[in-house]
Design brief:
Elements (H helix, E strand, L loop, with lengths): L8 H6 L7 E4 L3 E5 L9 E5 L11 H22 L3 E7 L7 E7 L4 H13 L6 H14 L7 H21 L1
Antiparallel strand pairs: 1-2, 2-3, 3-5, 4-5
Helix pairs in contact: 2-5, 3-4
Length: 170
């Protein structure tokens, strides 16, 4: 059966038709390890209900969704010790709203991308040649990280423990 607008990969994961490495799941939200991460530990926060954009979510779900997202980000910070956890909202390629939480490590592709964005936006102001240098540097730092099934199992289990701990504090 072809995936329709309400039958995307996340809907299939919720229905148990696709494999996922689940770090957290309740009746409204799940956290899964990203199979195609930019960095190890990248996680996706996905609502059960199908929405393409965050502003379509009812208030109660939105509050719970971001509570779980916040707990997950803190858990990623504790587990991987990155300098930050970036949050990227999506709903275009897969038309089911989700957050991508990315542990940002010093010198990584994501770190360099944010450095380029800062330079382009002028925070702090930098000469055009610095912007060009940072842009060129992105290509050198881009690499594809493909976690093994074993890494995903370990990571989802460790993250599950820390999310539960963080949600217990909320």
């Amino acid at each position: 059966m072809a995936a329709g607008p309400k039958e995307d990969v996340f809907c299939r994961i919720w229905r148990g038709l696709e494999r996922a490495y689940v770090a957290y799941k309740d009746d409204r939200v799940m956290v899964i390890m990203d199979l195609y991460p930019l960095e190890r530990g990248q996680a996706l926060v996905v609502p059960r209900e199908h929405f393409q954009f965050f502003y379509e979510m009812p208030k109660g779900l939105m509050e719970h969704f971001y509570l779980v997202s916040s707990a997950t980000a803190r858990a990623l910070k504790e587990l991987y010790k990155p300098k930050a956890v970036a949050m990227l909202a999506r709903g275009l390629r897969v038309p089911h709203y989700h957050l991508i939480l990315i542990p940002v490590r010093e010198g990584s592709f994501v770190d360099r991308l944010f450095s380029l964005m800062d330079a382009v936006q002028g925070f702090p102001p930098v000469p055009p040649e610095v912007v060009a240098e940072r842009y060129q540097g992105l290509g050198l730092s881009l690499r594809t990280y493909r976690p093994s099934h074993e890494e995903l199992e370990v990571d989802s289990g460790r993250l599950a423990e820390l999310i539960a701990k963080e949600l217990g504090r909320a």
